[in-house]
Specification:
Elements (H helix, E strand, L loop, with lengths): L11 H4 L12 H12 L6 E5 L6 H13 L18 H7 L6 E5 L6 H11 L9 E6 L6 H12 L5 E7 L7 H4 L3 E4 L5 H14 L3 E2 L1 H11 L3 H15 L2 E2 L1 H8 L4 H12 L3 H14 L3 H19 L12 H8 L3 H18 L5 H16 L4 H19 L10 H15 L6 H15 L3 H10 L3 H10 E7 L2 E6 L7 H13 L4 E4 L8 H17 L2 H9 L4 E4 L9 E3 L3 E3 L3 E3 L5
Parallel strand pairs: 1-4, 1-5, 2-3, 3-4, 6-7, 9-10
Antiparallel strand pairs: 8-9, 11-14, 12-13
Length: about 575
Amino acid sequence: MTDNAKQPYRVLARKYRPKTFSQLIGQETLVRTLENALKLQRLAHAFIFTGVRGVGKTSTARILAKGLNCIGPDGLGASTLEPCDICDPCQAIAEGRHVDVLEIDAASHTGIDDAREIIEGVNYKPVSARYKIYIIDEVHMMSKSAFNALLKTLEEPPDTVKFMFATTEIRKVPVTILSRCQRYDLQRVATAILADHLGKICKLESIEAEKKALVTISEAAEGSVRDGLSLLDQGTTMSHDNLTYDAVVKMLGRPRREESFSILQAAMSGDSATALLNFSNAYTRGAEPEMLIGDLLDLVHQASLLSVDGDTNSINESEKDIVKDIAKVGISHLGRAWQILLKGHGEIGKAPNTNAAAEMLIIRLAHAAKMPTPGELLKKLKSEGKATDDKKNPNTKLEISSKKTTEKNEASLSEKTNPAKFDNTAINTTETAELEQSITSLQEIVKLAEEKEEMLLAARIRNHVRLVSIKQGNLQIALTKDSPAQIPGEIAHYLSNWTQKPWLVTLTETNGEKTLAEQKGINDEKLRAKLAEEPLITEILQTFPGSKIEEIKHQEDNIEIREGNEKDFRFDNINQEMPK
């Protein structure tokens, strides 16, 4: 690195801060928009630059301030996006001493008094520049009263005044401020672009650096140019201007990429012993558990992109073959691995021993890798379940059907058996006659209420009504202790309207039958025990240790198991507790 004893050392992040828009990397859209605005003389009076730290927000404001006030080497130049950096205005702005360009840190100037100073200064014309420019950094830290004080001035400033705001927390800026500014979102700088930029700086500074080391620094910078330059500064100091990949991963506490590959491949193949050994080697060498798990997440993400033919431009060419090997396990296994790793990554930070937490996470990942995914299990059951069931119980037939298919078939059958069209009067008469004859049970009343979209009444009958007797036009019931008092009146009212015949609903002291909800619970428990004896269900329960039949649904559900032609019974799901 260049050594100049006469000048104090300047860190790379300051030394190579962009002075013109041509030196600003990764923000082509921003530069093009500002360039067109300047050419068309449509430059706004207020700008707000937002983005993560170190992508060039404040630098953009300073360059734009220089460009608007630049007069060129000959003193006759006009406003430009490429300031000369030679004239007095450019040099004064770059050094922070221009009287008409005021850079304010909102973190230390948050109050109403600071806003008042700005408002008063706006009324005075520039002393020596074309424009008086206010650059307010971290503007989101200003108080609510300060923002409110600026609203009028920000909306209608003098022609010679420009406001430039920079913030990393755009959501904290009031919408009343945002609506008065042109907003520019600065993007994270891509890893490849940042690595190339760092390489150019290394050449200028006579630093020997491996390309892989620069890529690793760029990945760790997460799109921030300033972070990348700071890490480069730290790495070159540590390695005496000979930056190697090993030195960088040791400095960052990151695992080597090949170590992460070996851990993930072993875990995804179910080899927990090898995965733990590889993790132990990486940890002994200095890799931080949280960073290692983050690396595994990145690899799973890249493999998932390959698996679904997504955008793979972010994957290094040297790593694509290994990522393809991981992608071969399929998107279902990769999706499950992502969920396990993501949950575990959050747990590591809370664990008293991060090393132990990471090891437990790897064991969990390897254990889950041996288990079939739901899709694989269903495919296996579809191919083997019927054969196994017929062999062990010839009298039982297993059928998985779709509700939509059933409804379609029923509709088709209805069209064939009823080809003629009837008028509305005939249809209503027939429905009423059938309705009068069909109401012989509490279940039918509930079904009728649901058909009429009286769901609350249906639920109340199902949960609170105990049937004593039912005859045409006469219903005797008992109620549960916590039932609403208006249930008998509601039932009588709705039944009379629906059937066009008077219904009398009376309460009795007799206990009556169990409620429909209670009956369903008893029947479901019996059915649950019967289902557990089915060969297909037995195989599922054995495949997932600790699982159980949690819920049973009936005719309205999509999946059904039919036994013979006499009785239909269905299962909704089997609750399985995944390994933790």
